[in-house]
């Protein structure tokens, strides 16, 4: 007899009653961006197979990504075949600046989206002939927040911090700077007239994010200053040719450790 | 602003899990969002009703769990808490640490119900 109301149902008969629905909790532990990450891995496979080094450039708007690309294309002319994917909310302006250098450039207009994702890059890759390239730069949307969360299928992240910004930017935007493989301090020619930006303070803020990435000061207006950056690129092209696994610092080990619990 | 994109990814995962388990409806979705994941929990909560519309989770509740940031020092071996912009060893101050937790962006579990026909 049921102890609540005195009816004749027993726990056993309750079990046999037709249930309206059964609720169940299913354990999952999968990455929220797994669809994006799947597409990114696919992009990276294409790039690896073609032997194309792919660098994702990130910074705030106006830090000098396009100017750095123009100067880099000039400096590497005849040594590497370069291609560029440009991400902006609107206009073809940056792609036209790159094409003026005689380099293929595909513009992705994101509309209002604040970042590129792996699917957008996949579509852009269809407009490039990978066999004709050695290095592919992706100029991400100017934004120090959102691009850090999306793997595009690239090999390495490079984050630009211009000397006209604060040298504490890594402390203010830790998610972005934590995921960088190289920090470039751009507009280095202005250091002579800016007494409030100290490269060592910017580097210390980067180290506080447990990031060992190199920190280089460059100026797109001074070809000589680009040498360390070009050397870094040379070394990464060599890494890729030797089959070193190149993956951007994107997805955390933390997730895997939790999954193992 | 990328929380909506993250939420859309979340709903995609939820729909996959729901289909795999023959669910007629998803009633609750639990995610684990670390302080270093780059995702704002308030914005995620606001984006969720937009992303879930028309999906198997159209009435689902979003439960967000968050954890602490913990780092392990590669120098002295100590494990301890850290701040998002100061990932240094709390014992010896070294910056050469490994993030043990705090950067999670995970779908942890899904509470789902099955239609009477598919229930045992």
TrEMBL record, chain A:
Pfam families: cobW
Organism this protein belongs to: Dichotomicrobium thermohalophilum
GO aspect biological process, one term: protein maturation
Family recorded in the similarity comment: Belongs to the SIMIBI class G3E GTPase family. HypB/HupM subfamily.
InterPro entries cross-referenced by the UniProt entry: CobW/HypB/UreG_nucleotide-bd (IPR003495), Hyd_mat_HypB (IPR004392), P-loop_NTPase (IPR027417)
Keyword Nucleus among record annotations: no
Protein name stated in the entry: Hydrogenase maturation factor HypB
Residue ranges annotated for the CobW/HypB/UreG nucleotide-binding domain, each copy included: 55-213
Keywords, comma-separated and alphabetical: GTP-binding, Hydrolase, Metal-binding, Nickel, Nucleotide-binding, Zinc
Molecular-function annotations in GO: GTP binding; GTPase activity; nickel cation binding; zinc ion binding
Gene3D superfamilies according to UniProt: P-loop containing nucleotide triphosphate hydrolases
TrEMBL record, chain B:
Entry-linked Gene3D superfamilies: 3.30.2320.80
Sequence positions that bind Ni(2+): 2
The keyword Zinc is annotated on this UniProt entry: yes
Keyword list, A-Z: Metal-binding, Nickel, Zinc
PROSITE patterns cross-referenced by the UniProt entry: HYPA
InterPro entries cross-referenced by the UniProt entry: Hydgase_Ni_incorp_HypA/HybF_CS (IPR020538), HypA/HybF (IPR000688)
One Pfam family hit: HypA
Binding site for Zn(2+): 73, 76, 89, 92
GO biological process, one term: protein maturation
Gene Ontology terms for molecular function: nickel cation binding; zinc ion binding
Keyword Zinc among record annotations: yes
Stated family: Belongs to the HypA/HybF family.
PANTHER family in the record: HYDROGENASE MATURATION FACTOR HYPA
Record's function text: Involved in the maturation of [NiFe] hydrogenases. Required for nickel insertion into the metal center of the hydrogenase.
Name of the featured protein: Hydrogenase maturation factor HypA
Gene: hypA
């Amino acid at each position: 007899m049921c102890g609540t109301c005195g009816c004749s149902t027993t726990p056993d008969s309750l079990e046999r009653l037709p249930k309206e629905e059964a609720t169940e909790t299913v354990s999952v532990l999968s990455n929220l961006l797994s669809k994006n990450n799947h597409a990114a891995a696919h992009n990276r496979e294409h790039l690896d197979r073609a032997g194309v080094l792919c660098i994702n450039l990130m910074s705030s708007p106006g830090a000098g990504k396009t100017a750095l690309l123009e100067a880099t294309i000039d400096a590497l002319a005849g040594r590497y075949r370069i291609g560029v994917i440009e991400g902006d909310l609107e206009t073809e302006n940056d792609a036209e600046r790159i094409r003026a250098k005689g380099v293929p450039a595909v513009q992705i207009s994101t509309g209002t989206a604040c970042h590129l994702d792996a699917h957008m890059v996949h579509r852009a890759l269809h407009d490039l002939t990978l066999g004709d390239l050695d290095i592919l730069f992706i100029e991400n949307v100017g934004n120090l927040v959102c691009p850090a969360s999306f793997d595009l299928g690239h090999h390495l992240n490079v984050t630009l911090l211009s000397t006209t910004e604060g040298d504490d930017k890594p402390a203010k935007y830790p998610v972005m700077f934590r995921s960088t493989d190289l920090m470039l301090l751009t507009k280095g020619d202005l250091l002579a007239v800016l007494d409030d930006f100290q490269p060592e303070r910017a580097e210390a803020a980067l180290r506080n994010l447990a990031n060992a990435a190199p920190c280089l000061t460059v100026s797109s207006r001074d070809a000589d200053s680009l040498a360390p950056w070009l050397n870094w690129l040379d070394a990464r092209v060599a890494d890729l040719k030797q089959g070193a696994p190149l993956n951007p610092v994107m997805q955390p080990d933390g997730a895997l450790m939790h999954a193992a619990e | 602003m990328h929380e909506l994109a993250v939420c859309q990814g979340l709903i995609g995962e939820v729909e996959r899990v729901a289909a795999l388990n023959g669910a007629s409806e998803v009633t609750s979705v639990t995610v684990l969002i670390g302080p270093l994941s780059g995702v704002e929990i308030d914005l995620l909560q606001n984006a969720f009703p937009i992303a879930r519309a028309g999906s198997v989770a159209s009435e689902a509740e979003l439960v967000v769990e968050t954890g602490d940031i913990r780092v392990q020092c590669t120098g002295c071996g100590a494990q301890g808490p850290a701040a998002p912009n100061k990932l240094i060893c709390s014992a010896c101050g070294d910056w050469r640490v490994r993030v043990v937790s705090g950067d999670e962006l995970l779908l942890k579990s899904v509470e789902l119900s099955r239609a009477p026909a598919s229930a045992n």
